[in-house]
Amino acid sequence: MELLRVLWWVSATLAASATVPESSRFGALWPLPRSLHISPARLQLAPKRFQILHGSGSSAGPRCSLLQDAFRRYYGYIFGYSKWQNHDEKQPLSETELFSLQVIITSEDSECDKYPGVESDESYQLQVSEPTAVLKASKVWGALRGLETFSQLVNEDDYGSFFINESDISDSPRFAHRGILLDTSRHFLPLKSILINLDAMAFNKFNVFHWHIVDDQSFPYQSITFPELSAQGAYSYNHVYTPTDVRLVIDYARLRGIRVIPEFDTPGHTESWGKGQKDFLTPCYNGKHPSGSYGPVNPILNTTYDFMLQLLKEIRTVFPDEYIHLGGDEVDFTCWRSNPDVSEFMKERGFSHSYTKLESYYIEKILDMVSSLNKKSIVWQEVFDNGVQLQPDTIVEVWMGTLYKEELRRVTKEGHPAILAAPWYLDYISYGQDWKKYYSVEPLDFLGCRAQKELVVGGEACLWGEYVDATNLTPRLWPRASAVGERLWSSKNVTDIADAYNRLTEHRCRMLRRGVAAEPLFVGYCSNETGDGT
Amino acid sequence: MELLRVLWWVSATLAASATVPESSRFGALWPLPRSLHISPARLQLAPKRFQILHGSGSSAGPRCSLLQDAFRRYYGYIFGYSKWQNHDEKQPLSETELFSLQVIITSEDSECDKYPGVESDESYQLQVSEPTAVLKASKVWGALRGLETFSQLVNEDDYGSFFINESDISDSPRFAHRGILLDTSRHFLPLKSILINLDAMAFNKFNVFHWHIVDDQSFPYQSITFPELSAQGAYSYNHVYTPTDVRLVIDYARLRGIRVIPEFDTPGHTESWGKGQKDFLTPCYNGKHPSGSYGPVNPILNTTYDFMLQLLKEIRTVFPDEYIHLGGDEVDFTCWRSNPDVSEFMKERGFSHSYTKLESYYIEKILDMVSSLNKKSIVWQEVFDNGVQLQPDTIVEVWMGTLYKEELRRVTKEGHPAILAAPWYLDYISYGQDWKKYYSVEPLDFLGCRAQKELVVGGEACLWGEYVDATNLTPRLWPRASAVGERLWSSKNVTDIADAYNRLTEHRCRMLRRGVAAEPLFVGYCSNETGDGT
């Protein structure tokens, strides 16, 4: 019967060749490293003998739990968790066996216990040759990226044996900020969904989780200082992130070299805030009387700023990242216009009828608060467009439509760092392989000098939550976001869409094997699909 | 602490009111029954006491395992499986308690052990009043539909107690054929995905699983007569439906009143067939020599028809439904044109250069075979368009683009039954609430007399598999297909989109509770969402 099975297998493999993508000469690497040489020479790996170790001379050792965790995690990704357990122990050593991967942190401070930041060094060198592979990185962040790459180099042959090609890789990201935005306000996302997304981000070398945590629809962030915000503003008692949950997300992200940047978007997008914080929103008027509905944050009351300062102080403590995203997008002036107290306030301040000035007045105060708390700010592009005085280091996130190149030119012309999100709104779904559209974007393709280009710190793939919750998040985001991941990590000249298709198809199957239900690119199958398709 | 929890709950409920849909006066019924009266009077249900029973005078009893299974299944859907286990047993009987649902099959032959068919009677009457509800149906098929409706009437109050409003419902479907097409060739769908889809179909009163089981890309159907078809033509040994699998799907469907109609699409869409069946496909020519590639089925060889007859004989045995779908769509003539033997054959037959005539020649032979095997055929519209002689009872499935109304007119004008699929290709995704588009289709809105309208037997929501596999199937199909479900079941005048939104939002949450990961319609949440969002 065994012979029959092998025959079946061979025939099935041949049968599938028509729809299965060709192999890329870069194997299934995603995103593609900056420089790589893969030799045809193969080394075997024996799961029972292979080890990932701290190499001699490394500034990190067994005390570095970030690496200890990563070693175990990647061992699991490489070999799976159970199927090799029954392998024959008496098998003789191969003549060309890779016995270990030695990880060496070369900098005196490995940053093992720190949080990643925009300045973190993610570069690494990986040399795979007999009898041991060596992964060198200045900091643990580069080691994490190198472990991912190493795991992507290991393959199984037709008999289920593990092998790796001798390789020489030198790698570092093209952009420092490579983000995924998830929106937990329009739909609550259970912790499990967020954690799986962090796994997927690590598989694609993303390093920023932009947590659009609250918005008009709900306020799931459980504040210590203002517990009523979520008590009143969350969808339900079930739909809340406790301080423990938030801590868990930040820790889980850190272990994968991922920053967590929370967004507390004001003065618009704040309907849910008003439920738990009295007088925070502007009362709208219908003629001479309050209509009972509320508009954006009320910018004319001192209590507004007292509250924001206290909340920002808490946020500073809870979220370790250097940056806080302050939003500032899509402020509707209708309600401010209707309110006589707002009009009076504007007259006093000499704002004439410019509500943009009023908005700027508010945002500048918030930006100053963040500055005074020794944090830096990210804002959506309107804040820049409205002429708000920004700190030089305030990052402007460009999100609007098709004119984003012009916006990038203007933002960087003024000397501000920029993040590009506009072409990567992944909630806008369409039929077919739209990953190609995301892949073909060149972030630096705008008019500007070299200094301007250097101000583009990166980009973000955004999955807004109007139509997304735990039921469809993962397959909607992955592998479409992977296209953005390679664009932001790999060199500018990595643009071969056919080669990308071949590698991404394999990469998607690998994500599936690792528990991320990434959807297919096109017709075909994954050889390791289990009975339930995951 | 309990008081605090209740306060939290109340506040959260108020907080959510802005984004949560309003309650429909029809509760969460989906699809809406033909005639219903819901009284404000509430009856309580106690899970430990409530029973679903065979009523006296029913022609079905405990021997009818279809109903026994359905009773247990719906008991589970209504009360959940565990949370009420700890309820206080000593609670006094309520004055207005519903103790049971009595199910009475009124026809002498309950059809309990039969398969559903296009003629099956799915009508039922449901009367809910103290102390017992009565569900009357002529056949078990109506009882299944009524059980679903009954389960949709039961709600939980704020304290977790179950109640139902006194109601009087009389219901039957508007169209006899209400189908979902799944494509297991472009991507293999694991059994579990198919079974979950059958559950969801039952929740939406669909009654036909159109199983597009094989196509160009792969041949997962494991034939008993021709095992090489899947041995060579499936993606892999893993990606095959064994006879046991097929049997399981058919049985599982039958227990839910769902027909399984397999589609074996020829003469196009057959690339994968050619791998396991020598000489079945036409060799294409490059000038005077075979190019090595193959086109549609080779219609000029007797062996083609011998093979098809044997295969159809097997299909007749394996699939109990009265109908077989024979495909017949999208035949590319390029290869036939290139082949000199085909040209010779056409000259002999006097086909001139009409490849349409050649296609018709082939299809007519296949249709005759099916007829001779005492089965009926369904074909895609091209077969009709090409002027093929059809049996009067051959159903034409209309799938092409925007001119489907004209096609419906023509098909029914010729006296053929029709199924409408064109406006319901759910694989064509787009941003936003496209369910409204599907919901707004009126299948009988074409020019024709009453007799023509009566020839429209129903419709199908189609989820072709180019971009769909187990990772994204369920949230992509549900609840978008639910819109089609109501259109095909409910009365023509059920078109209030706002009311539909309110009911469908609740219905989607109910599907979630029952294990179907249906995606959200829009912002909001389900009160019973668990920690992992399902």
UniProtKB/TrEMBL annotation, chains A, B:
Q: Which GO cellular component term is one of those annotated?
A: membrane
**Residues of the signal sequence?**
1-18
Query: What EC number(s) is this enzyme filed under?
Result: 3.2.1.52
Keyword Ribonucleoprotein present in the record's keywords: the answer is no
Q: From which source organism is this entry? A: Pogona vitticeps
Q: Name one GO biological process term.
A: carbohydrate metabolic process
Q: What residues make up the catalytic site? A: 330 (proton donor)
S-S bridge residues: 64-112, 284-335, 509-526
Question: What's this chain's function?
Answer: Hydrolyzes the non-reducing end N-acetyl-D-hexosamine and/or sulfated N-acetyl-D-hexosamine of glycoconjugates, such as the oligosaccharide moieties from proteins and neutral glycolipids, or from certain mucopolysaccharides. The isozyme B does not hydrolyze each of these substrates, however hydrolyzes efficiently neutral oligosaccharide. Only the isozyme A is responsible for the degradation of GM2 gangliosides in the presence of GM2A. During fertilization is responsible, at least in part, for the zona block to polyspermy.
Q: What is this protein called?
A: Beta-hexosaminidase
Q: Which reaction does it catalyse?
A: beta-D-GalNAc-(1->4)-alpha-L-IdoA-(1->3)-beta-D-GalNAc-4-sulfate-(1->4)-alpha-L-IdoA-(1->3)-D-GalNAc-4-sulfate + H2O = alpha-L-IdoA-(1->3)-beta-D-GalNAc-4-sulfate-(1->4)-alpha-L-IdoA-(1->3)-D-GalNAc-4-sulfate + N-acetyl-D-galactosamine; a ganglioside GM2 (d18:1(4E)) + H2O = a ganglioside GM3 (d18:1(4E)) + N-acetyl-beta-D-galactosamine; N-acetyl-beta-D-6-sulfogalactosaminyl-(1->4)-alpha-L-iduronyl-(1->3)-N-acetyl-D-6-sulfogalactosamine + H2O = alpha-L-iduronyl-(1->3)-N-acetyl-D-6-sulfogalactosamine + N-acetyl-D-6-sulfogalactosamine; Hydrolysis of terminal non-reducing N-acetyl-D-hexosamine residues in N-acetyl-beta-D-hexosaminides
One Pfam family this chain carries?
Glycohydro_20b2
What are the protein's UniProt keywords?
Answer: Cytoplasmic vesicle, Disulfide bond, Glycoprotein, Glycosidase, Hydrolase, Lipid metabolism, Lysosome, Signal
